[in-house]
C-alpha cells in the first residue's frame, strides 16, 4: 500500500495536466504543496505580493472546494479544462488546510488523464453569409481586433482577410501585434476621434464592448452603427449593443469562414474611398502632433519624448508589459507591437499591480525556451509600480533579466515638483493640503532595485534614457530599473486637471 499526502496528490494532479510552473506565496500549509510540486518536477516561483487571495473567487470561471482527497485529481482536471475551454479565464481551487497533510491510499484515487485541447467551433453558415452581406454594404467599415483573436492564434487568417478585403483595422490593447502595428491597414492612430466615431459597420473580433471601447455607445460611436460580433462566448453577444449579426465560434475559424465568403465574388473595399482618405489624413495629423511633442528637448521630459526614444531602442520581438494611467494609455499608441501575444497590460478590469507579476511569469517562460529568449520590458507608471514594487526582489532572487521602465511624474495622472511639495509642506498637514493624486516627488525607485542586487538608473535626460536602456538591454545577468523623471504636468492634452495647477496650491 502506498500512501499519498494531500500535498503530493495536488502536485501530481497538476503535473498530469502538464503544468510546468507554480507561482505562490508560502506559509503553512502552502510550504508542503510547494515542496511537493518541486518534487514532482514542477518549477516553483515564490512571489511577494498577495493581493488576490480570496478576492479572486468572484472573478473566476470555476470555483470549488474539494470535499475529499479522492476527488482532487478530478477537480484539478476540471479547473484546467475550464480555464482553457470557451473564453479563457482563471479558476480557483480552495483546499482546506487540514487536507494538505492528510493521507490517502493511492488505490483509492481514480486515475484522471490530461484534458484534451479545446474544441474548435464554427459559426452558423447562414450568419456568416449575412455578415459578409452587411460588410459589403458598408461605406465606413472598421475591423476591431481583440485579445480573443490573439488567443485563438488567428494572425495568419486575419492578415489574409484584411489584405484581401482591403478593410481598415484597429487593435484593442492586447490585440496589438496580431497584425503588426505598422501594417498599412492599421488605423489605431485615428482611433477615437474618427475610426470609432464615424464607422457605420464594425466587425468585432474577440473584443468586448466594455469601457476600453466606450461600451460601443454614443457619443464615442455612431448611434446607428451596425456591429458584426464574433466571439467564443455566447453570453457576450449583445452586451451593451445588440449586434446586427452574431457569429459564435472560434475567432480563427470564423475569420476563415468570412474570408471564404468575400472571396466567392472577389469583393474588396476600395483603397481610394473617402473613408480611407479621412483615416489617412487623421493618422498623418496625429503623427505630426505626436512627433512635435516627442522631439521637444526640454527637461524634464514629457511622455511622448520618453516613448519616442524607448520605441527606437526596443527589439521588435520583445514582450511589452504595461500598466498605469497615462503611461499605459500613451504607451499603447507609441510602443508598437509587431508580433502576436507580445503585449500584456492591465486588461479588462484595469487592475493595477499586475505588471511585475506578468513580467516574472513571462521572463520565467522565456528562460525555459532558450538560453536567453526574448527581452521582457515592463513599462510602469510610478503609481502602478508601487502596488507590486517588492516583486523586484523576486526578479533579483531568480536572476530574471526583466527591464523595468518607471515613467515617474510624481503622481497619479499628474503630480507636483519637489519645490511645490516643500512649499505645501510648510503650509500645514499634507493630508489636508496635498492633492489626492500626488505622490512623493522624485522617489528613488531605482534604489529599490539596487537594494536587492539589480541595476538601477536615475534618468532625467534623453541622453541618460538612451544610455541606460541600451545598457539594460545588453545585461542578461540581472534585472534593471530605469527611474525616468518626467514633467509632473505632462499629459495627453493641456490642463486635463486644471485644479492641480500650481497657482491653486
TrEMBL record:
Keywords: Lyase, Magnesium, Metal-binding, Thiamine pyrophosphate
Thiamine pyrophosphate enzyme N-terminal TPP-binding domain span: 5-52
GO terms of biological process kind: fatty acid alpha-oxidation
Any one annotated GO CC term: peroxisome
EC number: 4.1.2.63
Cofactors, names only: thiamine diphosphate
Reaction(s) catalysed by this chain's protein: 2-hydroxyoctadecanoyl-CoA = heptadecanal + formyl-CoA; a 2-hydroxy-3-methyl fatty acyl-CoA = a 2-methyl-branched fatty aldehyde + formyl-CoA; an (R)-2-hydroxy-long-chain-fatty acyl-CoA = a long-chain fatty aldehyde + formyl-CoA
Domain Thiamine pyrophosphate enzyme TPP-binding: 327-484
GO molecular function, a single term: magnesium ion binding
Domain Thiamine pyrophosphate enzyme central: 128-258
Main enzyme class: lyase
Stored InterPro entries: DHS-like_NAD/FAD-binding_dom, HACL1-like, THDP-binding, Thiamin_PyroP_enz_cen_dom, Thiamin_PyroP_enz_TPP-bd_dom, TPP_enzyme_TPP-bd
Family stated for the protein in its record: Belongs to the TPP enzyme family.
PANTHER family linked to this entry: 2-HYDROXYACYL-COA LYASE (PTHR43710), 2-HYDROXYACYL-COA LYASE 1 (PTHR43710:SF2)
Protein name: 2-hydroxyacyl-CoA lyase
The species this protein was found in: Takifugu rubripes
Organism classification: Eukaryota, Metazoa, Chordata, Craniata, Vertebrata
Amino acid at each position: 500500500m502506498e500512501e499519498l499526502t494531500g500535498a503530493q496528490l495536488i502536485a501530481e494532479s497538476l503535473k498530469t495536466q502538464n503544468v510546468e510552473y507554480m507561482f505562490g506565496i508560502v506559509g503553512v500549509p502552502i510550504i508542503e504543496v510547494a515542496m511537493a510540486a518541486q518534487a514532482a518536477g514542477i518549477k516553483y516561483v515564490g512571489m511577494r505580493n498577495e493581493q488576490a487571495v480570496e478576492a479572486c473567487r468572484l472573478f473566476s470561471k470555476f470555483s470549488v472546494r474539494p470535499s475529499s482527497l479522492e476527488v482532487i485529481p478530478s477537480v484539478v482536471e476540471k479547473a484546467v479544462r475550464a480555464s482553457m475551454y470557451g473564453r479563457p479565464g482563471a479558476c480557483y481551487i480552495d483546499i482546506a488546510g487540514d487536507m494538505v497533510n492528510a493521507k490517502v491510499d493511492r488505490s483509492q484515487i481514480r486515475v484522471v488523464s490530461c484534458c484534451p485541447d479545446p474544441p474548435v467551433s464554427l459559426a452558423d453558415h447562414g450568419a456568416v453569409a449575412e455578415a459578409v452581406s452587411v460588410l459589403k454594404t458598408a461605406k465606413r467599415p472598421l475591423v476591431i481586433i481583440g485579445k480573443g483573436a490573439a488567443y485563438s492564434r488567428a494572425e495568419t487568417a486575419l492578415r489574409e482577410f484584411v489584405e484581401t478585403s482591403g478593410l481598415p483595422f484597429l487593435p484593442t490593447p492586447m490585440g496589438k501585434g496580431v497584425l503588426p502595428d505598422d501594417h498599412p491597414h492599421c488605423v489605431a492612430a485615428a482611433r477615437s476621434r474618427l475610426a470609432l466615431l464615424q464607422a457605420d459597420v464594425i466587425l468585432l473580433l474577440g473584443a468586448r464592448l466594455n469601457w476600453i471601447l466606450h461600451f460601443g455607445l454614443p457619443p464615442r460611436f455612431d448611434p446607428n452603427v451596425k456591429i458584426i460580433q464574433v466571439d467564443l462566448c455566447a453570453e457576450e453577444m449583445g452586451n451593451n449593443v445588440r449586434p446586427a449579426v452574431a457569429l459564435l465560434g472560434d475567432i480563427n475559424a470564423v475569420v476563415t469562414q468570412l474570408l471564404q465568403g468575400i472571396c466567392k465574388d472577389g469583393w474588396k473595399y476600395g483603397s481610394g474611398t473617402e473613408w480611407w482618405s479621412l483615416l489617412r489624413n487623421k493618422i498623418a495629423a496625429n503623427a505630426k502632433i505626436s512627433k512635435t511633442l516627442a522631439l521637444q528637448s526640454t527637461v524634464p521630459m514629457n511622455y511622448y519624448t520618453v516613448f519616442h526614444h524607448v520605441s527606437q531602442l526596443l527589439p521588435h520581438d520583445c514582450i511589452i508589459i504595461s500598466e498605469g494611467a497615462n503611461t499605459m494609455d500613451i504607451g499603447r499608441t507609441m510602443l508598437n507591437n509587431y508580433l502576436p501575444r507580445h503585449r500584456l497590460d492591465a486588461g479588462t478590469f484595469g487592475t493595477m499591480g499586475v505588471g511585475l507579476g506578468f513580467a516574472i511569469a513571462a521572463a520565467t517562460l522565456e528562460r525555459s525556451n532558450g538560453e536567453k529568449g526574448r527581452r521582457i520590458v515592463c513599462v510602469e507608471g510610478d503609481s502602478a509600480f508601487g502596488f507590486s514594487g517588492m516583486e523586484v526582489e523576486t526578479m533579483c532572487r531568480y536572476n530574471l533579466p526583466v527591464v523595468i521602465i518607471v515613467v515617474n511624474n510624481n503622481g497619479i495622472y499628474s503630480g507636483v515638483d519637489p519645490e511645490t511639495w516643500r512649499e505645501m509642506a510648510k503650509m500645514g498637514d499634507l493630508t489636508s493640503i496635498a492633492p489626492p493624486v500626488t505622490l512623493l516627488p522624485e522617489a528613488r525607485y531605482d534604489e529599490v532595485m539596487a537594494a536587492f542586487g539589480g541595476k538601477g538608473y536615475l534618468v532625467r535626460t534623453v541622453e541618460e534614457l538612451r544610455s541606460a536602456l541600451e545598457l539594460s538591454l545588453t545585461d542578461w545577468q540581472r534585472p534593471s530599473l530605469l527611474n525616468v523623471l518626467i514633467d509632473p504636468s505632462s499629459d495627453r492634452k493641456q490642463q486635463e486637471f486644471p485644479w492641480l495647477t500650481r497657482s491653486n496650491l
